[in-house]
């Protein structure tokens, strides 16, 4: 069985799916990613599907599951690079990709994760000083 | 790998493992490209084939897939037959409902793939298993 490589770039794990995955490979990726998130303490996961020429219900469910798992492990997942034909087909198939954030490319995905992480830090700080947020 | 496909002949692929589902996708894509389907239509028919081949494996206990280039005089298209000798589908109306699954899936395989193709026929019985024929025509 082939495995999808996971790269660490700063605070982000980058997964670029370059092969037509078998269902087993997809499940393995789910497990590998969960382990890498915990090992590295990364706060973001970017899954690049530029090279995928289809996303069927199995892969769609894998993406949703990865997003849920990483959320529980304090990491934000962004799926990037979906082809237009894939998006059209997904919608017609009836797949909603619940809970998945998407961006058009890796760069925007990184911005999204940075923003989400900054918001979270702000929120934690705000908890200590909510007196300052008085309304005029 | 897909070079040298003789499109005059039906292309057969057995479905016994995960890897075979991948092979079905690749075969259907090669035939869809050769019959000049648009990119969106190629994507739709390959996605439908992936769903149905997985059903053949998971629910039918394995089987076979046959891909043929068809021509109705005006347009050409891709026809795919998925056959298994599994237990058949007890309640077809229920199985065709969005979100219904007897396994652990999302319940979009049958209903979703029907939306992705132009023609969809299903014959199923406990004795002979399930046979699904789908066709996607070029625009």
What does this entry look like structurally?
Chain A is about 50% helix and about 15% strand. Chain A is α/β, with parallel strands linked by helices. In chain A, strands 1-2-3-4-5 form a five-stranded mixed β-sheet, sandwiched between helices. In chain A, strand 4, helix 3 and strand 5 form a beta-alpha-beta unit. In chain A, helix 1 runs parallel beside helix 2. The longest helix of chain A has 23 residues. Chain B is an alpha+beta fold and about 140 residues long. Chain B has one domain: Histidine kinase-like ATPase, C-terminal domain (Heat Shock Protein 90, 2-Layer Sandwich). Chain B is about 35% helix and about 30% strand. In chain B, strand 2 and strand 3 form a beta hairpin. In chain B, helix 1 packs antiparallel against helix 2 and helix 2 runs antiparallel to helix 4. Chain A: This is STAS domain-containing protein. Chain A: Pfam families: STAS. Chain B: Pfam families: HATPase_c (PF02518).
Mean pLDDT of chain A: 90
Number of domains of chain B: 1
| Main structural class of chain A | alpha/beta
Order of helix and strand elements from N to C terminus of chain B:
EHHEEHHEE
Shape of chain A: globular
Mean pLDDT of chain B: 91
Distance between the termini of chain B: 27 Å
Give me the count of strands of chain B: 5
Q: What percent of the residues of chain A sit in helical stretches (DSSP H or I)?
A: 40-55%
- Assign the CATH architecture of chain B: 2-Layer Sandwich
Would you give the CATH topology of chain A? Transcription Regulator spoIIAA
Q: Mind describing the biggest β-sheet of chain B?
A: 5 strands, antiparallel
Low-confidence stretches of chain A: none
Q: Could you describe the largest sheet of chain A, including whether it forms a barrel? A: 5 strands, mixed
Oligomer: heterodimer
Report the portion of residues of chain B in β strands. Answer: 25-35%
Protein name (chain A): STAS domain-containing protein
InterPro entries (chain A): Bact_StressResp_Reg, STAS_dom, STAS_dom_sf
Pfam families (chain A): STAS (PF01740)
InterPro entries (chain B): HATPase_C_sf (IPR036890), HATPase_dom (IPR003594)
């Amino acid at each position: 069985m082939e495995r999808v490589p996971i790269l660490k770039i700063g605070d982000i794990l980058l997964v670029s799916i370059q092969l037509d995955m078998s269902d087993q490979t997809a499940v393995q990726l789910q497990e590998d990613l969960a382990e890498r998130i915990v090992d590295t303490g990364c706060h973001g996961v970017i899954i690049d599907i530029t090279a995928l020429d289809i996303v069927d219900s199995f892969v769609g469910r894998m993406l949703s599951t990865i997003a849920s798992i990483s959320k529980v492990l304090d990491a934000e997942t962004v799926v990037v690079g979906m082809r237009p034909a894939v998006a059209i087909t997904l919608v017609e198939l009836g797949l909603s990709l619940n809970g998945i954030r998407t961006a058009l490319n890796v760069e925007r995905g990184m911005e999204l994760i940075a923003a989400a992480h900054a918001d979270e830090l702000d929120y934690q700080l705000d908890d200590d000083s909510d007196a300052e947020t008085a309304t005029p | 790998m897909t070079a040298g496909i003789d499109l005059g002949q039906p292309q057969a692929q057995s479905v016994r493992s995960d890897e075979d589902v991948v092979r079905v996708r690749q075969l259907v894509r090669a035939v869809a490209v050769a019959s000049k389907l648009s990119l969106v239509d190629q994507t739709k028919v390959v996605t439908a084939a992936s769903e149905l081949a997985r059903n053949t494996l998971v629910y039918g206990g394995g089987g076979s897939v046959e891909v043929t280039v068809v021509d109705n005089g005006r347009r050409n298209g891709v026809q795919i037959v998925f056959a298994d000798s599994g237990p058949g589908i007890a309640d077809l109306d229920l199985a065709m409902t969005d979100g219904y699954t007897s396994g652990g899936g999302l319940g979009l395989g049958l209903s979703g793939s029907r939306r992705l193709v132009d023609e969809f026929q299903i014959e199923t019985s406990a004795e002979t298993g399930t046979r699904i024929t789908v066709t996607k025509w070029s625009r």
